[in-house]
Task: structure prediction
Amino acid sequence: LAMMTSMHLLGLVVGLVALSGVWGEDPPAKKGRTFSLFSIVQFPNQVCTASSSSSTQGTCYTTSECTEKAGTSDGNCAAGFGVCCVLSTTSCGSTISTNTTYIRNPGYPSSFTPTSTSTCVFTVSKSSEDICQLRLDFQTMTGFAVSTASPVGQCTDKLAAVGQTGSDPPSICGTNTDYHMYAEFGGTSTDTISLTLTYAETSFTAKTFNILARQIPCTSAWKAPVDCVQYFTGSSGNVKSYNFAGGQLLTSQYYTNCIRTEEGACGIQWKESSTTSPDPFQMTLSPITNAATGHPTACSASYIYIPKLSSDGIQALPQTPATQEFYSTMCGGAFGLDSAAVPLALTSRSKPFVLGVFTSAATITAPTTGFNMDYTQVPC
Result:
């Protein structure tokens, strides 16, 4: 993450007084002298963990810097020379130009209920010229309404992140606690990203959101590949569709999940999560049992894309029951072969490792859950 430095000034005033042989007045020829010794302590503005909660992050600043930024001091850092300064905003129309800032609903941690349909916009400006991306971590995001009547799966309330590159992540709604999202800044120092919360549900449901916004330098090891909306690291992990916890696949989704290739890995194996509720794979207009893979007509409404899947990513699939040598487009009610209800573990050796997502704007006719997929990278 972008890093600046802070300076803490230590002052020590020492009085040197020439003493006579007795405790009396100074000798006429000698007078007391004083001088100041100053020491400057510099420390980087690194991310720190708040003392009140291990899940809350702040930035190490001096006490005065934290006050100037309207932050909250929550523990010490830099060997006690700095404070862990937690920055947050709840005000619509705010411009955020600091790193590691929380965007929270009014009254957080209590929920917030809008009293009218409205929008709330936060503008994120680059904290330094070398910033390329904004990462949003949804530490809490609940209560954003999803349509359960026609059109099913459409966002009524929503969050939209819009940059200036022309390639933006999808708008999301529902329950997305513990998900994350990357958005791209443009190439100039004045480029911004706008975060717009839309409250359009007229029943005015209660909402809670606590979103950590972190700016990522162009040279950072944590920078995601360009246009990866989610970026996962590690030799194994899990990828879910947005609002999977809410049990409803969202419409109008088109984005890519990227998985960093770990050292010594030549492939990646995918399979449905062993968690059975919600259903770990329903990429359909309405719930079905069997897989419907590979065919544009079968997957016209929604699918995930993982290039060149087979049992090991090397050998082609058997022509019976498979209808293709390798699968890339997967949909239906199971992550498996055409018209089969048995989920499989399938491997891709195409790099970079990705899981693309597409859902059309077409009306989903009944609740369908989306996907909950586990991955394990395969060594060479």
User: Anything to note?
Assistant: Confidence is low (pLDDT under 50) at residues 9-35. The chain is about 0% helix and 40% strand. Residues 213 and 301 are 32 Å apart (CA to CA). The longest strand covers residues 5-16.
